[in-house]
């Protein structure tokens, strides 16, 4: 049942090309238009939405942060992302033109369920992105978009995360299509690039030995930092969470721009810092700014490990180790840049002899508030 792998987590990391492919499957018609009939929500209603609030916890909340970047860019509707357990306690502004998008692998996370119930009482429309058919959150929501990652057994979420990001892109593109915010040709181009992602994830998986080797070498590190920007920021947070959860190492993810506002004081001789580098083909000067962040931490003694797009030569001089991922659209990069960080955490935890699938103190689905 572990598909020849030693742990469910390894198997699930390797299931990711299929998880993304299956989540994309059957969601376009013969003419290439997105059809999300299963949503059970009136397209007219989706056209009238004035604000989206994404609610989730843990890894699912990082998928929600990626969703914000994509949906705001494509649909031009404001998107807030909030941890489910914080949401109800801040007196949020909600009305019937607010769409709540919940992200939950299990569909049973009590914090998220309670937040969705609260939003419904306030008159919001609710849409669940969920990996578990017939679970409570989608049952109680107006609409549902299922991720098709298949059952996820390991406590640390991997393939469900990539599937949630994929489904969020589909939702964004569908709303952009409904509201005429992107040309049909643009939507088709993005979908074509999404369909190429599973093969590219496979390429990253095929290069896994380099990452596992580094993990073995770094098993005794007491602390690891992760930096990212734009969609690389939630990826950095996710890389840190994976290490905390299964390898019990102190790890923190930061927005790279925040470095000089405090965290750079943590950098000392030999401190490992992973940097998720934006595409050199992305917007504005983000890439150059992150490259200069790598230089800054390295100048203070950090051991820099970068995850960069294939062909990005600018990082080489400042990185002890570079993991290259294939090129794709800048907004789609998290589907690739996350994978080396998952492999790293999994291999490091295994090296330390920990139970990768059942980390201490954690449950797969958190059904208490
Ligand atoms: O089932 P959910 O997606 O609602 O779960 C949310 C979090 O509890 C979950 O993502 C948790 O952070 C994982 N252990 C992360 O690996």
TrEMBL record:
<dbReference type="GO" id="GO:0005975">
    <property type="term" value="P:carbohydrate metabolic process"/>
</dbReference>
<dbReference type="GO" id="GO:0006487">
    <property type="term" value="P:protein N-linked glycosylation"/>
</dbReference>
<dbReference type="GO" id="GO:0097367">
    <property type="term" value="F:carbohydrate derivative binding"/>
</dbReference>
<keyword id="KW-0315">Glutamine amidotransferase</keyword>
<comment type="function">
    <text>Catalyzes the first step in hexosamine metabolism, converting fructose-6P into glucosamine-6P using glutamine as a nitrogen source.</text>
</comment>
<dbReference type="GO" id="GO:0006047">
    <property type="term" value="P:UDP-N-acetylglucosamine metabolic process"/>
</dbReference>
<protein>
    <recommendedName>
        <fullName>Glutamine--fructose-6-phosphate aminotransferase [isomerizing]</fullName>
        <ecNumber>2.6.1.16</ecNumber>
    </recommendedName>
</protein>
<keyword id="KW-0808">Transferase</keyword>
<keyword id="KW-0032">Aminotransferase</keyword>
<comment type="subunit">
    <text>Homodimer.</text>
</comment>
<feature type="domain" description="SIS">
    <location>
        <begin position="214"/>
        <end position="359"/>
    </location>
</feature>
<keyword id="KW-0963">Cytoplasm</keyword>
<feature type="domain" description="SIS">
    <location>
        <begin position="41"/>
        <end position="181"/>
    </location>
</feature>
<feature type="active site" description="For Fru-6P isomerization activity">
    <location>
        <position position="364"/>
    </location>
</feature>
<keyword id="KW-0677">Repeat</keyword>
<dbReference type="GO" id="GO:0004360">
    <property type="term" value="F:glutamine-fructose-6-phosphate transaminase (isomerizing) activity"/>
</dbReference>
<dbReference type="GO" id="GO:0006002">
    <property type="term" value="P:fructose 6-phosphate metabolic process"/>
</dbReference>
<dbReference type="GO" id="GO:0005829">
    <property type="term" value="C:cytosol"/>
</dbReference>
